[in-house]
Design goal:
Blueprint (H helix, E strand, L loop, with lengths): L1 H4 L3 E11 L9 H6 L13 E14 L4 E4 L1 H4 L4 E5 L5 E10 L4 E5 L9 E2 L10 E6 L7 E12 L10 E4 L11 E4 L3 E9 L10 E5 H14 L9 E4 L3 H6 L9 E6 L4 H5 L6 E5 L2 E2 L3 H9 L6 E8 L2 E8 L6 H4 L10 E5 L6 E6 L4 H4 L7 E5 L2 E2 L3 H8 L6 E7 L2 E7 L1
Length: about 425
Amino acid sequence: MLKQVSPAVVNISTFSRQQYSYNPLLNDPFFRRFFNVPEQRQYSQPSRKKQQSAGSGVIVDAEGGIVMTNYHVIKGADEVQVSLYDGRSYQAQIIGADPELDIAVLSIESNGLVEVGIADSNKLEVGDFVVAIGNPFGLGQTVTTGIVSALGRSGLGIEGYENFIQTDASINPGNSGGALVNLAGELVGINTAIIAPSGGNVGIGFAIPINMARASMQQILKHGEVRRGQIGIGIQEITPDLRRAFNLSNGQTGVLVSNVAQSSPAADAGLQSGDIILSVDGQSVSSSGQLRSLIGIKAVGEPVTLLLLRDGKKLTRQVKVAEPQASAAANGYLHGLLEGVGFDNAANKQGVVVSNLAPNSAAAFHGLRPGDLIVAANRRRVYDLESFRKALQRSPNSVLLRVERGGGSFFVVIR
């Protein structure tokens, strides 16, 4: 199996030019003598230096020369070089990237490439044997084995959309973008991150499921970018108290719908506040992060089938993913301190809902979460996006929000 798969895993080197600043006074002879600056060096131009980093990638289309890797492997690169298993090396073109999922798509022009087959990562189970192939520490192609330790890992704050495969196959720096394959030699994930308190591998590595990565890649190849939409709901985790309140049985998982935006796809499909989403397109969900990821990989206009639990009865609703209604807010249009946050109108003009949230945003750092209902801003009652916008204009240097979450309310200050 490894003899068939290894040629499809590549090493990636990136080069970026770093600009060094210089002082034009260094060209003045008096200045150099006064400060005892050596005369040997000429200071007419700023110096440049190339920096190189190493990662991994996977050939997923041999005919088209398409290589998939992590976005953080090629981030900020001026040049990307792909080295094949047989020693050949090519300069790659960056077709596009999906920073929120940490996926990038490259292309190279070469003959005789080998691609890896792609599996259905939804069929993975905990305990399945997997093999990680990559370029750890720049050593060259390395193979490690392990099992699937867990599925659907989220809430790690590594990426915007998280639904990781966890594995104990050794993954180290440089493995990023490499292949996680099953024993049939089929690609099930793209290795992307580790938890390493000691700086080395401790048996906790994470891979992006290939179904998510492939959906992102297909949009990049088609549009040059990923166009994500939304269905117009606020969601929250099911706490032990909520579990008892909704009479859920032990072990039953799902995500609670806290509100449904007016005139949204979810409202049109009949979703209601208090519904519990059990699965998306047949895949069970156990956390809000996992639900966001499953919706996030869908293209705008694509339908999703939701299995709901309402008043103890299961029902199915089909919802079409639509363009975000508050894309301006997600780009910081409402307020500079809210950059990376998307908002939507809550039902019945009761406030605005946090529809999406970048994990590295200031709002996330100060405690805001997807699904939060904002009922006041800067001591002004908020009814909808328009009243929210007016309230934010009262304070350009800080934002005071009154937030309702899980039946309680609290204040969040963002500076």
